[in-house]
Amino acid sequence: MYLNKSAQYLQKKSSEVHPILKARFAAWNFILNDDSSYLQKAEKTLIKFNEKTDFFVFYARLLWTFLPVKSIDCLNTLNLTEIPAIESYFEKGRTNVLMLTKAINSYLNNDLTEAKSMFDKFDQLYLGYDIVNEKFYANWIEKLSNLDLVS
Asked: What integer pLDDT is reported at residue 91 of this predicted model?
């Protein structure tokens, strides 16, 4: 019921909706209905790199939390050369969580070299705006830290 009401709202207000809310809706639509159509629609509305970052970080974490999902293909569309200049602590945290997200995705895709490369760019001092999910990230940080032992 609430997912349907959200869908109606998002159809009317798509350009005004924050990327994190779009990500949550896209993820829950996939988790509950196995429907990725909103993901495809939402991706087209994401213009700025920061919008894409916010969207994909939240989308990926929700899928990894609630589904036995491996890697998420749409994360591979993010071009890291588009990262804007970091001017604040918040922006540093946003970019940092993206590096961790991409490291997790590479790990799940069995690309351990890329996972290590992305994880090496991650700074544990800046978990960023998704800090409320620290336990989820702590498990991954521990797993990715052990890549040093493997290589």
From this structure: 81
- Whole-prediction pTM value? 0.85
Q: Interior CA angle at 55 toward 33 and 29, to 5°?
A: 10
97/78 Cα distance (integer angstroms): 14
Burial of 63 from C-beta contacts in 10 A (0-12 / 13-18 / 19+) = buried
- How is the chain split into domains, by residue range? 2-150
Asked if 98 contacts 53 with a C-beta cutoff of 8 angstroms, the reply is: yes
Q: Which residues of the chain have pLDDT under 70?
A: 1-15, 128-132, 149-151
Distance CA 145, CA 148 (A): 6
- Length of the chain counted residue by residue: 151
Task: Give the burial class of 41: count Cβ atoms within 10 A of its Cβ; 0-12 exposed, 13-18 middle, 19 or more buried.
Answer: middle
